[in-house]
């Protein structure tokens, strides 16, 4: 059953007349058409008892029709009221539109109010976000294969990253070299802005890259990801440039143990909280517990961060087909920061990563 058919069946099972899918990522997931509409309106309308339709800015209509979407595509010009056209198309399509499902995680208040102007008496209480969350949670073999390819592109990026490390080169310069090499390699989109952090800068988990220069004898952290056919990769490696301090090396050793142990022990039926605890206990026992300041992992797929969170308090059982990251980190302000991350998928036998760049401490000779 296609993803779109699953959504329509959910509408029938819940006696919901209309689903208004507003998140462009989810529009792509259900329709096969992907686009960033920026400030314009892109939406998918799915019905319990009628064919769905795509609604897009007029400048995207022909592209959407050519995407393989089998149903109607309607558009609007910039000077037109998109919601007036949407209302007209819905009322022409079906007489049943009293009960709506909306993405409560996504639909803005201003757009909710705009659509309610044309449907003032309808109920929009059904939350499509929770259904979509569960549907996207389990990846098919085809989806996993695409994510394996995205992981291979991330591995290529790490090789470019390590080769770019030299004395006097800035974090931002290294980032530029990575992304330029990827474009020459045919990878045109990153899943997020590449992070390069040297020395104490890496103690700020989501900072950088800055114009600070790489200095001898410090750790350098790389967090990067690529996009392949709408699916994301995301991985982190930390390497040594020269010989870092004993403290920095110890942080790395503990973080590596936490990553490898958690990946090795991940099994179906284990809860997300239990997996988080395996890595967290290793870091806490080594005396760095207060410096592990985020969850162990996050889901990944068409978004870099998606359901579920691998963290304390989440008692969801991990099952085959779920894709998520394992990324312990230790961040000591003024000293160093280390994160080692792999995304992968759960199988009946355990966790299989999408990325395969070695994780043992790689030392780049000073130059």
CATH architecture of the largest domain: Alpha-Beta Complex
What is the terminal-to-terminal distance? 56 Å
- Quick one: CATH class of the largest domain? Alpha Beta
Stretches where pLDDT is under 50 for at least 5 consecutive residues are none
Structural class by secondary-structure content: alpha+beta
**Could you give a short account of the major beta sheet?**
6 strands, mixed
Oligomer state equals single chain
Per the CATH scheme, the topology name of the largest domain is Creatine Amidinohydrolase
The gross shape turns out to be: elongated
Order of helices and strands: HEHEEHEHEHEHHHEEEEEHHEEEEEEEE
Helix content: 25-40%
Strand content: 15-25%
- Radius of gyration equals 23 Å
Task: Explain this structure.
The protein has a 6-stranded mixed β-sheet, with helices on both faces. A 4-stranded mixed β-sheet has the order 7-8-11-19, sandwiched between helices. The protein has 2 domains: 135 residues, 3-Layer(aba) Sandwich (Creatine Amidinohydrolase, Chain A, domain 1); 224 residues, Creatine Amidinohydrolase (Alpha-Beta Complex). The mean pLDDT is 97. Helix 7 packs across helix 8. The protein is of the alpha+beta class and 367 residues long.
Q: Helices, strands, pairings?
A:
Elements: H1 3-13, E1 18-21, H2 24-31, E2 43-47, E3 53-57, H3 61-65, E4 72-76, H4 82-93, E5 99-102, H5 109-118, E6 123-127, H6 128-137, H7 141-163, H8 171-184, E7 195-198, E8 218-224, E9 227-228, E10 231-232, E11 235-241, H9 246-265, H10 272-285, E12 297-299, E13 306-310, E14 323-326, E15 329-332, E16 336-339, E17 342-347, E18 350-353, E19 363-364
């Amino acid at each position: 059953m296609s993803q779109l058919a699953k959504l329509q069946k959910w509408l029938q099972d819940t006696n919901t007349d209309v689903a208004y899918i507003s998140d462009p990522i989810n529009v792509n997931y259900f329709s096969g058409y992907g686009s960033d509409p920026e400030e314009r309106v892109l939406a998918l309308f799915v019905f319990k008892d009628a064919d769905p339709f795509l609604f897009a800015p007029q400048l995207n209509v022909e592209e959407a029709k050519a995407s393989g979407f089998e149903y109607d595509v309607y558009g609007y010009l910039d000077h037109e009221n998109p919601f007036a056209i949407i209302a007209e198309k819905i009322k022409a399509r079906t007489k049943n539109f009293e009960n709506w499902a909306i993405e409560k995680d996504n639909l803005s208040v201003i757009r909710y109010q705009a659509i309610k102007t044309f449907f003032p008496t309808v109920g929009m209480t059904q939350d499509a976000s929770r259904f979509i969350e569960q549907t996207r949670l389990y990846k098919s073999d085809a989806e996993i294969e695409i994510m394996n390819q995205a992981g291979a592109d991330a591995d290529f990026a790490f090789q470019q990253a390590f080769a770019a490390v030299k004395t006097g080169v800035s974090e931002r310069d290294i980032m530029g070299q990575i992304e330029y090499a990827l474009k020459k390699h045919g990878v045109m989109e990153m899943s997020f802005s590449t992070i390069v952090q040297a020395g104490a800068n890496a103690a700020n988990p989501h900072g950088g890259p800055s114009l600070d220069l790489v200095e001898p004898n410090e750790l350098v952290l790389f967090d990067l990801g690529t996009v392949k056919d709408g699916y994301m990769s995301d991985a982190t490696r930390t390497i040594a440039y020269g010989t870092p301090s004993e403290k920095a090396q110890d942080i790395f050793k503990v973080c590596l143990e936490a990553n490898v142990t958690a990946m090795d022990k991940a099994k179906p039926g284990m809860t997300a909280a239990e997996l988080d605890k395996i890595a967290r206990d290793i870091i806490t026992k080594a005396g760095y517990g207060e410096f592990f300041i985020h969850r162990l992992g996050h889901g990944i797929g068409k978004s870099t961060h998606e359901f579920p969170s691998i963290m304390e308090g989440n008692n969801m059982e991990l099952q085959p087909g779920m894709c998520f990251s394992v990324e312990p980190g230790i961040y000591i302000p003024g000293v160093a920061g280390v994160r080692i991350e792999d995304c992968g998928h759960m199988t009946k036998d355990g966790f299989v990563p999408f990325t395969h760049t070695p994780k043992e401490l790689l030392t780049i000779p000073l130059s």
